[in-house]
Amino acid sequence: MTATMVRDDAGGLLSRDFFARDVVTVARALIGTTLLVDGVGGTIVETEAYDASDPASHCFGGRTARNASMFGPPGNAYVYRSYGLHWCLNFVCVPASGVLIRALEPTAGLARMIERRGTSEPRRLCAGPGRLCQALGIDIGLDGRSLDAPPFALAHGTRDGAVGAGPRIGISKAVDTPWRFWRDGSRFLSRPASGVASR
DNA sequence: GAGGCGATTGGCT
DNA sequence: GCCAATCGCCTCG
C-alpha cells in the first residue's frame, strides 16, 4: 500500500485541498470522516459521486440558478431541493462535480436529531439524503457555504474497515456507473449494500 | 404557458 | 408494493 496524498489524522480537519481532487476519489475518501453542523452529526457511511460528464448529474445540462454552487470552488456545499420537499447536501469537488452525502452514523447531538426528525429510531435518523439534512438542520441557507467554517465541521476519521462500491440509487441515467460508496457492514445505510467491497 | 419528471420519503394497501 | 406531496427545471408548443 502506498502513502496517500492526504493524511488520515484522526480528528484533523479536512482542508479545501481534500476536495480539490477527482470526485470519485473524494467520494470514497469521505467514508469514515465526521460531519457536524452546529455540533450535530456523525460518521459519513454512504456517498455518491456526480461529475460534469455524467448524464445523472445536475451539472450535465450546464449551469442554472439551482446548481450554481457546483461551479464554485472545491470545498463548498451544494444544497438543493429534491422532489419539491426534501433537502440534499453535496460537497463540491473539482468544478462541476460533487459528492452527495447519503447517510451518517449518528454520533453527536442525538437529542436535536430526534427532535427534528420526530423519531428516536437511530437507524432512521440519518439514513438517506433527505433524512440527514432534516436531522442536521440543513436547508438552502447553507448552499454555497464553505465547509471549513461554521456551522460546518468536517474531520478525518479512522477509516478502518472495507469500503463498498456499487451503482447509485434513485437515478434513471448512467444507472450502472458504480459511484455509490459505503462503509461495509454499516447498519446506517439508506439502502442495503449492493456491489463489491474492498479496502 | 402547460406538462412531465426527478440524486426522496412516509403512509397506506 | 403503491402512491401522494411539491417545486425547480426541461421540453414542447
How far is it from the N-terminal to the C-terminal residue, by CA? 10 Å
Strand share of the residues?
Answer: 25-35%
Order of helices and strands: HHEEEEEHHHEEEE
> Radius of gyration from the CA trace?
15 Å
Number of helices: 5
Coarse structural class: alpha+beta
Largest sheet: 9 strands, antiparallel
Poorly predicted segments: 1-7
Q: Give me the count of strands.
A: 9
Helix content range: 10-25%
The shape, in one word, is: globular
The overall pLDDT, averaged over residues, is 92
Explain the overall architecture:
The chain is built from five helices and nine strands; from the N terminus they run H-H-E-E-E-E-E-H-H-H-E-E-E-E. The chain is an alpha+beta fold and 199 residues long. Strands 1, 2, 3, 4, 5, 6, 7, 8 and 9 form a nine-stranded antiparallel sheet that branches. The N terminus is likely disordered. It binds a DNA duplex (13 and 13 nucleotides) through strand 3, strand 4 and helix 5.
